[in-house]
Amino acid sequence: MRKPSVGIALEGTPFILFLAVSTLAFAALRWWCPTLFCLAATWFCGYFFRDPERLIPALPDVAVSPADGKVIRVETRPDPLTGAPLVCISVFMSVMNVHVNRFPLAGKVERIHYYPGSFLNASLDKASDKNERCAFLIRDEDGHAWIMVQIAGLIARRIVCRVDPGDELARGERCGLIRFGSRVDLYLPDAYTSQVHVGDAVIAGESILARKHSA
To answer: What share of the chain is helix, strand, coil (3-state, %, to 5)?
Structure first.
């Protein structure tokens, strides 16, 4: 498994360093308009690629949000790997959200499948089938299969996956990111029920999205 950075996502450092150096270079030349532009862009990239620590719930039999953002969909849809109808929770990330994605629950990555595609608005239904995306099949400690899908969007142009098949991750552990806004879908196994509604704001690694049925 490829380890993440702390504080700032590693994938953002080339952008931040380039803009910071550009800011200093323009300031040395006393070109104040490009200096101010690059300074603002440096701040934005630092803000966008922030990677704060999160307080992971210790409750049993729950799944946390894999992404920061807003719940835009809770409905039954065919999952992208098997076609089985499962409840899907979609979390949309704006450019102002933290974009580091986290594991929804403790489990093992059994399969990862990358789908090339378009860059439509990630809030559209057809983005689930048309956009560039990366699907994970996760097997939890009780043997339930979960599917998490990172979906690129209108502005997003790169999906970053930090895990490999065979990796075992804890609930809330970092597993990737999507640059500059997009969406993450989580397909629930039949043993779990959604705990969120459309319009809810959620925090990756902290907000509980689903809970196991009581016996």
So the answer is: 20, 40, 45
pTM: 0.83
Coil vs helix vs strand at 19: helix
Residue 65 scores a pLDDT above 50: yes
Structure tokens at 192: 């779990």
CB 18 within 8 A of CB 38: no
- Tell me which of 90, 128, 182, 194 is the catalytic residue: 182
Q: Which ranges constitute the DSSP H helices of the chain?
A: 13-28, 32-48, 127-130
Nearest to 94 by CA among 67, 126, 66: 67
Q: Active site includes 182?
A: yes
Handedness of CA 140, 213, 205, 79 (dihedral sign): positive
pLDDT in tens, 100-151: 899 999 999 999 998 876 655 545 555 556 678 889 999 999 999 999 999 8
